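Hi there,

I know you've been waiting on this one. I reran it after we fixed the sequence typo, so this is the corrected version. Both the input and the resulting structure follow.
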Amino acid sequence: MRDFNRKLIIMTDIHIMKPGRKIIGLDPSERFQACLAHAAENHSDADALILMGDLVHHGIAEQYAQFKSLLIDLPWPVHMTIGNHDIRETFQAAFPDAPKDENGFVQHSIQVGDHTLLILDTNDPTTEPYHGGNLCEDRLSWLSAQLVGKSLGSVVIAMHHPPFTTGFPGMDDIGLQNREAFNRIVAESPAVAMVMAGHVHRTIWGIAGGKPCAVLKSPCHQMPMELDEANSTLSIDEPGAYGVLLLGNDDPVLLTADVGLEGHINEDEDSR
């Protein structure tokens, strides 16, 4: 029997707009609230809610105000970083108490039982193309320092841009531009058990520095399965989703939950 005694809720790519504004006909605030309600109903015992960037759609103050209003009275503490749609300075003005490192990047570590979650800031508006991610030398040094002294398989890394090629050409063009540097650090650390990312709006499994890496869907809109499409702006109305990370004495396990699908639980041995 596997031994999991800790749980984290993982969400990414929230893309909050001003009240009433929609993306492909979907209201990001309503979709986010539906995922929060689903998670609260089924996983109120989780240790924290982790948000992996693209919190809002245009990085403006009005959107952060709307986003902030949706985080009231949640059953878990909230830890977050930013993505390519966020603006660091505007985010920090809206959330002045949000943890940051000594260089002002929106990244920090949290302890969850015997495990450490490292939350990285991959936002870099100077990167070409614009929506691509980057980890500068300061951020890479911070990551390396956080891994010193960590025990085998005790660290999970959460970030916005995936550190591997996903198979979606348009999204890979705006992926983590210096993923090789990140992956070298991960490969050299026996402590890293798993990496999690967002950005692509699709559930994807890959390898980063020899470690399993998962990309999660958005609570709002998703990337269509168009593997030959170079357009990174395509979206499709599919159910919103979030992740549930289980931690304990065994290796971490990441589950995903789609929200909005109709269904009932039935007991029937023949169904298996």
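Quick highlight: The chain has one domain: 4-262.

Best,
R. S.
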